[in-house]
Amino acid sequence: MKKTIALLTGGTTGEWVVSVKSAATIAQNLDADLYDVYKIMLNDHSWFYEPADSVKIEINRNDFSLTLEGKKIKFDGVFIAIHGSPGEDGKLQGYFDMLQIPYTTCDALTSSITMNKGYTKAIVSGIDELFTAKSIQIFKDGNYHIDEIKKDLKLPYFIKPNSGGSSIGMTKVKHADDLETALDKAFKEDNQVLIEEFVSGREFSIGVFKAQGEVTVLPTTEVIPANEFFDFEAKYTPGATEEITPGNMSNEEYERVHRIVKDIYKKLNCRGIVRIDYFLEYETGNFYFIEINTIPGQTATSFIPQQVAAMGISLKAFYTSLLKETIG
After folding, report:
1. How many Cα neighbours within 13 Å face the side chain of 6?
2. Is residue 246 part of a domain?
3. 202 has a pLDDT exceeding 80
4. What CATH number is associated with residue 46?
5. Same structural domain, 96 and 25
6. Radius of gyration of the chain from Cα atoms?
7. Region 121-147: what's the mean pLDDT?
8. Residue 75: what pLDDT?
């Protein structure tokens, strides 16, 4: 018997544009023989199903149901495709937990913690063979001192909104005089900011997921941006970045990276598909953790669909395995 799935897209941040594109890819590749899929849009004002242009049917948020032609539709599970808030920060996960509706992502606690780059780094920092860049976490109304930051960290710095995604509000600072401007930019996106020392290395992004009870690592993607770093433009403009899947790693690097990313997945208690970004430092070959994304993009230019293809499986089979593992 078919399962009824809500494919949840949109969101309340600037990443909603990416979420809509991700949901389009997912919708095209969900097995119609196994699932009846309803694409639900969530924004600041409403949650609705749109069966036709200009027709919007509101979701009953008391039980997350939909009434169509007098018939009440309840969902067996939710495929969350919302990047940023409230899809990636634990809010929706907590809501669905209370309603006892299963979903495809990490649980509420893991989603909430991993949305904060500084807190995530603190948790994973004890993992064997994993390194993290020296950093300082500051708060908008906190008691931080620019001079102390300049003294404690070596240039260049990466300035990142702590809970942001898609590299929005991020700056690479090469001159100390530019630090305050970069902080102002980041604080427009978040009230917490992470200032990290720059790691000189090759950049990679790798998908990790659990299916049939086993943690599986997808082929990695090597990222060579035309811009100075992998910013929003480089991420979502076709051709703006050279992306090599599978990325070029030695057998030793390949085995070590797989060990580390599986340990990260387990230590953070992940579910579903996540994407881990990392550097292999030029001089040492050390693995430097950048961040984890618990709802990675599924757009035509996103890494996960590229990596699934490189593994030799179809997106349909991949999404089916995710749904069976997380929703049943």
Report:
1. 28
2. no
3. yes
4. 3.40.50.20
5. yes
6. 20
7. 92
8. 98
The residues carrying an active-site annotation are 15, 166, 302
- Domain that includes residue 150, residue range: 135-197
Tell me: do 76 and 167 sit in the same domain. no
Q: What is the pLDDT of residues 150-190, one digit of tens each?
A: 989 999 998 988 876 546 788 999 998 899 899 999 998 88
Among 151, 175, 197, the domain-final residue is 197
- Look at residue 166 and tell me if it is in a domain: yes
- Does a structural domain hold residue 91? yes
> How many residues does the structure list for the chain?
328
Q: Does 158 reside within a domain? A: yes
Would you say 147 is a known binding-site residue? no
The answer to whether 184 is annotated as binding is no
Q: For residue 233, what pLDDT is reported?
A: 54
Has 293 been labeled as part of a binding site?
yes
Number of separate domains in the chain: 2
